[in-house]
Q: What sequence folds into this?
């Protein structure tokens, strides 16, 4: 397997075609006259913060204007997202994150918004990894799952909170296997990973991009990807898929990007679409980030982006509802059961 190929089933050529098709016939040029506020609804250093800062730097070159990153964590990302949603619809306030989180807020009852209320500009797809503190006695996924079965609710798993990628991953594992665990939440993926390194928690199921440095430094031991595909992590090697332990296990693709609320001027949206096609889709900085951190470079926007993220939104919303963590049935807010 080519070490620069993270998911063999994903076709970059098809993605590029989708971008080309989505290009507006007559893209308008918006010239922002003041800095743009880009709210990251998670703590600094996590997966959203990492990729957003790289993407923002690329966009600044095309816009000729500063993009100010504002970290506003809390309530599993819904506080910062609310700030962007309720800001003036003048195109100067955006947010960022995982699309599957954005699509679950209404089901959780934390924020009345749907994925279709936003213009999605996706940059990468991320994969979750089961990582353990090196002192933990688990060397394989089976050993960990057996221990969780033997000690229901005892083994601690650190994540960035309800709806976060790490929590979704562990909930999916629990649903498939019937294990119970002790959930320890933090204000972002990076704090959750650091807590695992420090021994505050035994396990984390956060994203590979958040664990990559700790894995390479042997401060976290990766057991498996929460996927049916292996991950080639630069400077480490191959992390096997959980499907090797749980035959038939799969997980939907987890896309991250920048989100602009609908209702902003059309020329703002058209300009960002043009930048996505001409700059972000060709960004060497983002490609390097993806390769080095264990992510998939996947720039999409428009209808192609909405279609790409919906399986993960759907799976996440129903997983939360079936697990008793959501207040609103997804099928009442436009998310049918998969």
A:
């Amino acid at each position: 397997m080519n070490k620069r190929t993270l998911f063999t089933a994903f076709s970059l050529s098809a993605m590029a075609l989708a971008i080309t098709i989505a290009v507006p016939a007559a893209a308008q040029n918006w010239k922002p006259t003041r800095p743009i506020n880009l709210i990251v609804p998670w703590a600094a250093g996590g997966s959203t913060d990492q990729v957003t800062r790289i993407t923002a730097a690329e966009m600044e070159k095309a816009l000729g204007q500063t993009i100010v990153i504002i970290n506003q964590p809390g309530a599993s990302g819904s506080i910062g997202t609310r700030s962007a949603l309720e800001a003036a619809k003048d195109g100067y306030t955006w947010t960022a994150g995982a699309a599957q989180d954005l699509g679950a807020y209404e089901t959780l009852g934390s924020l009345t918004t749907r994925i279709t209320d936003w213009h999605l500009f996706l940059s990468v797809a991320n994969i979750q990894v089961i990582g353990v503190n090196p002192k933990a006695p688990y060397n394989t996924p089976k050993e960990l799952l057996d221990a969780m079965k033997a000690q229901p609710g005892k083994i601690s798993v650190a994540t960035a909170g309800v709806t976060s990628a790490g929590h979704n991953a562990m909930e999916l594992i629990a649903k498939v296997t019937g294990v119970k665990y002790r959930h320890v939440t933090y204000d972002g993926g990076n704090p959750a990973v650091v807590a695992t390194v420090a021994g505050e928690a035994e396990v984390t199921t956060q994203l590979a991009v958040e664990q990559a440095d700790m894995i390479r430094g042997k401060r976290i031991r990766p057991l498996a990807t929460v996927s049916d595909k292996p991950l080639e992590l630069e400077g480490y090697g191959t992390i096997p898929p959980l499907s090797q332990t749980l035959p038939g296990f799969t997980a939907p693709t987890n896309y991250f990007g920048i989100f602009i609320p609908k209702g902003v001027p059309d020329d703002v949206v058209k300009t960002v679409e043009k930048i996505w096609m001409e700059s972000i889709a060709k960004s060497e900085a983002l490609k390097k980030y993806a390769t080095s951190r264990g992510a998939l470079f996947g720039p999409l926007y428009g209808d192609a982006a909405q279609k790409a993220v919906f399986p993960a939104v759907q799976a996440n919303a129903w997983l939360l509802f079936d697990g008793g963590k959501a207040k609103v049935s997804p099928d009442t807010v436009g998310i049918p059961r998969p």
